[in-house]
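Page 37, continued from 36.
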């Protein structure tokens, strides 16, 4: 038997598959093995097994060893890895990595074992007779083991010292047995199961998912309509049938609260997969799923790679969220991979949102997905009342603070009633930028073509694109002037201003800076949920999913911010964001309010978001997309070229462009657009960026393959060439 092994090296653009003989070892498809490679052994994964080989047999070396008790990848996993390799033109070695916790590779983390001690089979009286009279510790140990069969080794050594135990082991009187222990993340997160009877609408939704012959069901339900309960019940049904489930949420910050609900219902068969866990926890949670001890995987997009077999249902909550598209290689789309897994497992996919992506909703309307609508909140509570404030008027009235008079008044009223407030602003840091009042130039990052944000910690200037940190300047680097002004507001400044206005209010801030430590998100959210604070200020991190019953006011400080991006999705994004943030208000008994501050109160998108009119918004947006030939009517393909020298970037771009132009000329009817330009973000991390943009007919895999092949030839160590299909971020 011969094994094709992908060695775990990704430094070349092509896969290296090597053949080894199995050598009598217990090698299976998906096994992780150690194989001779040059003068040493390296790790690899078995991706095929064959009776014969085309290789000269005398040159084939044997596999050195198998690294785990069972294959780390299933047949389905190997199949999915190959699908990703083909679809996204990445080396198999790279796509295989998605399936394994990094801790597993290269043996960085060992399984945690717990050692227990028990008596050997020698008759107890014989042992006692053989222990010296004055060896009281040894006697003590034997006595204890006589009473309790198994005792943790650590407990015995602590009580009796390690030398007594070692002596007993040497004499063969006691034995050590090892069992696998698990490190459990978020131990404290638990809850009692809510006593809920599903409403008729929820029940119908569940029946519809289970009875439809369509694989994907789209659950379109307003915020607070009880979607989560529908998910939980669907998981419950899968588990009851002996199947497993995958539950995806858009952000790491949302995993703990979902985990809490899953644990309340399913105890410890829920396992969490995400990058914020410690290495040991991640490793153990993965193994619990792999070995069938856990049956429900929850996490952000990468949990789609959960090592589960016999998957019954895959749930993608907040399906419109851009985090479901990977932005680093391989740039996969989660729903594509979910569809692959659903097909292999004969599973159902449920995608849910209050604001479905234009693309998904169109698929549902066209009958490709099963569309389920939950148009009302549970108990028919009204959606929050909205007050729109025209900020142009505030400026005229001499109000230069970030808070309108109306918002201030509403905050005061809410605090008085001892309810909670959420203030939303999609800008972290203290000020958006720092500008010289003499020459008008913003201070920019040396490596990126973007202005820096002022942060109060150590008075620093941060680049939000590359993470570079600079000391705050004393003078303008451009003209030397000392007159420098903070432009725009960030969350840190908003907190300061709120403290001035409401000195007694307790305020929490949640953004990327305040959640860097492990479990940082949880601490802030838990604290707010326990009403240890009155106001929560945050970026889009707070927009999604959270269910705080005491929040009756949401203030949206700058609703226009995302409207003015030159991205075809900016309307869609704004609509989603406003709806989501507004949906945090008034989720329990008391009616909620939303104050929305804007400079364009007549904007269609804002108006539709505020009247919760998804369908109107969708109709207009979809006809706009159709007329202009944008997705979902076409596929956008962007080729991004980036190198450290501008001339080189330009030259490579031209070369690719010329080759693709020939393709374009011969297949004009398959293109809606073809062009070449500098990327909107001209420079990032010291690299100059150019792009070739195309819009092509939908699902044209042959043309896509041609584009991939043509451009990726130019990719090498110095020149980065990236092909992106329908990228969610076009900067
Ligand atoms: P969504 O996910 O659509 O935003 P949730 O599932 O979080 O909505 O439900 C909103 C609130 O309503 C939650 O507090 C939830 O516990 C409660 N809820 C959901 N379904 C029911 C039900 N059938 N009966 C009573 N309360 C419910
Ligand atoms: Zn200046
Ligand atoms: Zn930078």
């Amino acid at each position: 038997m011969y094994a094709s092994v992908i060695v775990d090296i990704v430094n070349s653009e092509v896969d290296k598959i090597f053949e080894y003989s199995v050598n009598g070892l217990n090698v299976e498809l998906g096994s992780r093995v150690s194989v001779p490679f040059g003068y040493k052994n390296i790790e690899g994964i078995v991706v095929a097994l064959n009776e014969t080989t085309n290789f000269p047999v005398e040159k084939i070396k044997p596999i050195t060893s198998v690294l785990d008790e069972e294959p780390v990848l299933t047949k389905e996993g190997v199949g999915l890895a190959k699908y990703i390799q083909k679809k996204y033109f990445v080396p198999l070695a790279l796509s295989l990595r998605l399936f394994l916790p990094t801790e597993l590779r290269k043996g960085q983390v060992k399984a945690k074992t717990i050692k227990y001690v028990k008596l050997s089979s020698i008759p107890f009286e014989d042992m006692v007779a053989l222990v010296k009279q004055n060896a009281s510790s040894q006697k003590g140990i034997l006595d204890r083991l006589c009473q309790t069969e198994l005792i943790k080794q650590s407990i015995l050594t602590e009580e009796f010292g390690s030398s007594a135990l070692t002596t007993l082991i040497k004499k063969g009187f006691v034995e050590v047995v090892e069992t696998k222990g698990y490190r459990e993340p978020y131990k404290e997160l638990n809850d009692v199961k809510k006593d809920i009877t599903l409403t008729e609408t929820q029940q119908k939704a569940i029946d519809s998912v289970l009875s439809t012959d369509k694989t994907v069901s789209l659950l379109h339900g307003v915020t607070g309509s009880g979607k989560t309960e529908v998910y939980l019940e669907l998981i419950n049904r899968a588990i009851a049938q002996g199947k497993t489930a995958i539950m995806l949420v858009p952000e790491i910050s949302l995993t703990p609260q979902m985990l809490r609900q899953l644990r309340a219902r399913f105890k410890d068969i829920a396992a969490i997969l995400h990058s914020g866990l410690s290495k040991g926890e991640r490793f153990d949670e993965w193994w619990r799923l792999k070995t069938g001890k856990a049956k429900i995987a929850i996490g952000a997009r990468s949990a789609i790679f959960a090592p589960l077999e016999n998957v019954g249902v895959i749930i993608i909550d907040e399906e419109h969220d851009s985090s479901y598209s990977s932005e680093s290689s391989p740039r996969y789309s989660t729903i594509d991979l979910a569809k692959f897994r659903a097909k292999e497992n004969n599973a159902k996919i449920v995608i849910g949102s209050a604001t479905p992506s234009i693309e998904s909703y169109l698929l549902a309307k066209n009958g490709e997905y099963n569309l389920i609508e939950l148009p009302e909140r549970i108990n028919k509570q009204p959606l929050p009342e909205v007050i729109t404030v025209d900020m142009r008027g505030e400026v005229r009235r001499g109000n230069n603070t970030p808070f309108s008079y109306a918002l201030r008044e509403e905050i005061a009223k809410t605090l008085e009633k001892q309810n909670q407030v959420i203030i939303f602003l999609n800008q972290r840091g203290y000020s958006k930028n720092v500008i010289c009042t003499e020459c008008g130039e913003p201070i920019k990052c040396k490596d990126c073509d973007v202005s820096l944000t002022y942060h109060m910690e150590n008075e620093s200037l941060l680049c939000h694109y590359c993470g570079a940190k600079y000391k705050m300047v004393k003078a303008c680097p451009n003209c030397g002037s000392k007159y420098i002004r903070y432009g725009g507001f960030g969350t840190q400044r908003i907190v300061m201003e709120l403290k001035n206005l409401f000195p007694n209010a307790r305020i929490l801030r949640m953004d990327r800076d305040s959640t860097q430590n492990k479990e940082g998100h949880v601490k802030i959210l838990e604290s707010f949920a326990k009403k240890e604070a009155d106001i929560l200020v945050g970026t889009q991190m707070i927009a999604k999913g959270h269910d705080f019953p005491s929040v009756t006011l949401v203030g949206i400080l700058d609703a226009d911010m995302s409207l003015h991006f030159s991205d075809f999705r900016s309307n869609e994004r704004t609509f989603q964001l406003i709806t989501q943030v507004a949906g945090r208000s008034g989720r329990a008994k008391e009616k909620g309010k939303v104050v929305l501050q804007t400079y364009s109160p007549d904007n269609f998108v804002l108006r539709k978001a505020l009247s919760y009119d998804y369908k109107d918004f969708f109709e207009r947006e979809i006809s706009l997309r159709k007329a202009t030939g944008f997705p979902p009517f076409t596929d956008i393909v962007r080729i991004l070229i980036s190198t450290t020298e501008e001339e080189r970037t330009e030259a490579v771009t031209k070369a690719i462009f010329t080759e693709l132009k020939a393709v374009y000329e011969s297949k004009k009817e398959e293109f809606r657009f073809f062009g070449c330009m500098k990327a909107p973000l001209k420079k990032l991390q010291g690299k100059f960026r150019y792009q070739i943009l195309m819009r092509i007919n939908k699902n044209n895999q042959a043309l896509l393959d041609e584009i991939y092949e043509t451009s990726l030839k130019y990719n090498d160590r110095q020149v980065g060439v990236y092909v992106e299909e329908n990228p969610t971020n076009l900067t």
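DSSP finds 21 helices and 31 strands in the chain. Flag for discussion at group meeting. The chain has a mean pLDDT of 89.
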